[in-house]
């Protein structure tokens, strides 16, 4: 990896780690979900990076892809299990990290087991190890505490301006799977839920996060200009609907986004929910594969 790329990854990692620490102090009962998202996104920018995707704030059974909507008035509930997923990039070199904040002592063990599964998984990460072996470490650690992993969520390889690319690191053991390569960058992210859960997520009915698929000519001027703005500002990185209110008023924005989805210019990320509505915890770091293991970029 070239030195300028490595420097950018490390800088993004330091910034994301600082924002993750701030998130732990910010999340508390009664705080607006929108306030958490906007404050942490602003902090990423003030520290010298850009959000690699909208801050995700996912409560209880919601596992991923939830962020504040336009005019969102939802509050962090008392007694909840809150996951904050943070992405930061410097010139497109991005990192992805997450923390679970437990506001319920009865759910503390889910957070703690997710963190232990991540620590043990990272010790197994090295060149030529199969992704399924790392998944086996995650699965066995979680199951040793009488809990289960969310089996259809996984860690993922990262490349410039692309959050999910190439290889995946499952949260369960698989017999096959790709080998991790020297110099590659991965997000490793165990998801943990209760033993009586399905251990699977499904797409919900809401979506607030999108990404561009392709740019093309469109007849509608608003759609054409919005797509151009998305391409210029976010490239292939995910973005939030609320980030686009500077371009169009709310109702018109919704119509244009639907047109862009129909035209297959953009795709949406539905909120992901544990199928049996059981609480989910998450822990996540981004790592660089080194000769004798890995460098944790977001520690």
Explain what the structure shows.
The chain has six helices and 16 strands. With 299 residues, it is an alpha+beta fold. It has two domains: 3-203 and 276-296, Alpha-Beta Complex (Creatine Amidinohydrolase); 205-271, Winged helix-like DNA-binding domain superfamily/Winged helix DNA-binding domain (Arc Repressor Mutant, subunit A). A five-stranded antiparallel beta sheet has the order 8-7-9-15-16. Strands 1, 2, 4 and 5 form a four-stranded antiparallel beta sheet that branches. The chain has a four-stranded antiparallel beta sheet with strand order 3-13-11-12. Helix 1 runs antiparallel to helix 2 (33-46). It is globular and about 55 Å long.
CATH architect. name of the largest domain? Alpha-Beta Complex
Order of neighbouring strands in the sheet with most strands: 8-7-9-15-16
Low-pLDDT runs of 5+ residues are none
The CATH C-level class name of the largest domain = Alpha Beta
Radius of gyration: 19 Å
Can you tell me the CATH topology of the largest domain? Creatine Amidinohydrolase
**How many individual β-strands?**
16
Main sheet characteristics:
5 strands, antiparallel
What is the domain total for the residues? 2
* SS field, number of helical segments: 6
């Amino acid at each position: 990896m070239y030195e300028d790329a490595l420097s950018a990854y490390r800088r993004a990692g330091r910034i994301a780690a600082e924002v993750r620490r701030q998130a732990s102090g910010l999340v508390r009962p009664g705080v607006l979900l929108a306030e958490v998202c906007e404050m942490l996104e602003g902090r990423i920018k003030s520290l010298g990076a850009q959000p690699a995707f909208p801050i995700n704030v996912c409560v209880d059974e919601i596992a991923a892809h939830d962020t504040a909507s336009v005019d969102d008035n939802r509050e962090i509930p008392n007694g909840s299990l809150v996951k904050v997923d943070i992405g930061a990039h410097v010139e497109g070199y991005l990192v992805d990290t997450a923390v679970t904040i437990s506001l319920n002592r009865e759910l503390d063990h889910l957070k703690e087991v997710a963190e232990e599964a991540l620590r043990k998984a990272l010790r197994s990460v090295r060149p030529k190890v199969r992704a399924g072996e790392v998944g086996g470490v995650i699965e066995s650690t979680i199951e040793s505490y009488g809990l289960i992993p969310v089996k259809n969520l996984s860690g993922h390889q990262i490349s410039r301006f692309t959050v999910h690319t190439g290889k995946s690191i499952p949260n369960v053991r698989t017999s096959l799977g790709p080998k991790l390569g020297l110099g590659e960058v991965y997000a490793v992210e165990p998801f943990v839920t209760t033993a009586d859960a399905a251990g699977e997520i499904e797409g919900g009915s809401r979506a607030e996060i999108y990404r561009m698929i392709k740019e093309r000519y469109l007849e509608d001027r608003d759609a054409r200009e919005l797509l151009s703005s998305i391409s210029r500002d976010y490239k292939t990185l995910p973005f939030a609907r609320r980030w686009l209110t500077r371009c169009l008023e709310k109702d018109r924005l919704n119509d244009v986004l639907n047109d862009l989805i129909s035209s297959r210019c953009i795709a949406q990320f539905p909120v992901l929910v544990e199928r049996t509505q059981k609480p989910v915890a998450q822990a996540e770091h981004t790592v660089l594969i080194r000769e004798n293991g890995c460098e944790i970029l977001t520690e």
